[in-house]
Amino acid sequence: MTEDNSMDEHDRIEQNRINKTKKAVSDRESEIGSTVMSPHQLIKMAGEVDDYEEKLRLYDEALELDPACTDALLQKGFSLDRMGKSEESLTCYNRALEIDPGNVGIWCLKGFAFNNLGKFEKAVECYDEVLKINHKNVFAWHQKGISFESMGKLKDAIECFDKALEIDPTDAFIREKKMKLLGAIYSEGKMEDSPDKYFN
């Protein structure tokens, strides 16, 4: 297959995907008819399409109907972050947190966006907000540990993983993450004392 044929095949596959997305939206709109859709219906529809631009259009439509719809703001922020527009996603999360400051899901997603931007200190602040609301949130302890690891604060990272494992000792993923980090620290000779003290 020549490079041109390969490109044609890629374009054909991409066009088929776009056509399917448009058809799904069109079918859904026909199914609903001329009635005005609620923000919830628009958010549900956005969840059924693969195209992020179309998702954003539907979330914006939902927000036109209800500018205080935290679900639409959260989902729009998540889509923007997945598209590599993490800075724009923060605007959505900040607006959502003005409406619902105790929403741990929004704080976690905001932490993700900061991590994606390399602003690890800011990510830690977000996970700390989650832990103020729920000190036993395993996910927040784990993500906070990852942020510390990205900053090179390995001892702090291990302490976060330990906190997570105190809450859920069965979490094999966090345990494995901790063991790999301990192995890296030990092999590089960065551990000031015996690594055994960190094992649960």
Can you describe what's shown?
With 200 residues, the chain is mainly α. It folds into 2 domains: 100 residues, Alpha Horseshoe (Serine Threonine Protein Phosphatase 5, Tetratricopeptide repeat), CATH 1.25.40; 88 residues, Tetratricopeptide repeat domain (Serine Threonine Protein Phosphatase 5, Tetratricopeptide repeat). Helices cover 76% and strands 0% of the residues. α4 packs antiparallel against α5, α4 packs parallel to α6 and α5 packs antiparallel against α6. It is globular. It starts with a helix and ends in a 13-residue tail after the last helix. The C terminus is likely disordered.
Keywords:
mainly alpha, Serine Threonine Protein Phosphatase 5, Tetratricopeptide repeat, 2 domains
The counted number of beta strands is: 0
Helix content: over 70%
Element-by-element helix/strand order: HHHHHHHHHH
- Summed over residues and divided by their number, the pLDDT gives a mean of 85
Distance between the termini: 56 Å
Name of the CATH homologous superfamily of the largest domain? Tetratricopeptide repeat domain
Say what the CATH topology of the largest domain is.
Serine Threonine Protein Phosphatase 5, Tetratricopeptide repeat
Helices, by number, come to 10
Beta-strand proportion = under 5%
| CATH architecture grouping of the largest domain | Alpha Horseshoe
Tally the structural domains.
2
In the predicted model, the low-confidence regions spanning at least 5 consecutive residues are 192-200
Shape, principal axes of CA atoms: globular
Please tell me how large the radius of gyration is: 22 Å
